[in-house]
Design goal:
- By secondary structure, the chain is of the alpha/beta class.
- It is 46% helix and 13% strand.
- The protein folds into 2 domains: 213 residues, Alpha-Beta Barrel (TIM Barrel), CATH 3.20.20.60; 41 residues, no CATH class.
- The longest helix is centred in the middle third of the chain and has 18 residues.
């Protein structure tokens, strides 16, 4: 499992389905997320929590989406993740204060990914991203659409909120956001289009709800071979001269920085420059 700050694919698996935990890990997802929130009905949450506890205690590696602050299950969920020292996704994050309070209850260094999925959360995105423990935000597109009374499939309706989250993450100095789910599980074209739209705005990872989505998301969000070849040439050109021209275009520090970011996102070696 990669750490959440560098992961590209996050795959949810219901906490009430322990038979799927190992399958989620084997899917190739960078981070499997055992979900105690939306995927589990209220009367099943205590049992699901114990299934998650047993699997993690036996050596399983995953993040856990706890139930939200103020719910009847929150305290017990936080005690679980604190005991087992696993990354945490906090749903419906709406303030820096609640993230700070959560961090106080977790071991130092526990990665926290707040899921921003309400209008208030979007308005407070920068303080949420800047809170202790937060390594990057995630975008709860479906729940936000419900909160706003818009269609979650309408890219235009949610574009402003997406941009706010990208700006907030950058301003706070944390990793770029994780985009919301594509609910059409078997629609590869829709998945690719959603990934491209998110990537164009600055998202570099995505939440998945089915193992069939993992490979498609990883491929769509990885820089293309053409982009990587360009990035390698830019960095090489910068080694020879701080400001140069490549293919008729100026290569200065901002261009080199973008090239380096592309190589890093793909896990490629970055030559010294």
């Amino acid at each position: 499992m990669l750490t959440p700050d560098v992961a590209t694919t996050f795959l949810f698996v219901p906490g009430s389905r322990p038979d799927r935990y190992d399958k989620a890990v084997a899917s190739g997802a960078d981070v499997a997320v055992l979900d105690l929130e939306d995927a589990v009905p209220p009367d099943g949450k205590p049992a699901a929590r114990e299934e998650v506890r047993a699997w993690l205690a036996a050596g399983g590696r995953a993040a856990v989406r706890v139930n939200g602050t103020g719910t009847p299950w929150f305290d017990d969920d936080v005690a679980l993740v604190a005991d087992l020292r696993c990354p945490v996704l906090l749903p419906k994050a709406e303030s820096g204060a609640e993230l700070a309070a959560l961090a106080d209850r977790l071991p130092a260094g526990t990665p926290v990914v707040p899921v921003v999925e309400t209008a208030l959360g979007v308005r407070r995105a920068e303080e949420i991203c800047a809170a202790p423990g937060v390594v990057r935000p995630a975008f709860g597109s479906v729940d936000l659409a419900v909160d706003l009374g818009v269609d979650h499939l309408d890219d235009v309706a949610l574009r402003h909120a997406r941009c706010e989250l990208v700006l907030a993450a950058r301003a706070a100095g944390v990793a770029a956001p994780v985009d919301g789910v594509t609910t059409a599980v078997r629609d590869g074209d829709r998945l690719a289009a959603d990934c491209a739209a998110g990537l164009a705005l600055g998202f570099t990872a995505k939440l998945c709800i089915h193992p069939a989505q993992v490979a498609g998301v990883a491929a769509a969000l990885r820089p293309s071979e053409e982009e990587l070849a360009w990035a390698t040439r830019v960095v090489a050109a910068a080694e020879a001269d701080a400001v140069t021209v490549l293919d008729g275009a100026l290569v200065d520090k901002p261009v080199v920085d973008r090239a380096v970011a592309l190589l890093q996102r793909a896990g490629e070696p970055v030559p010294a420059h």
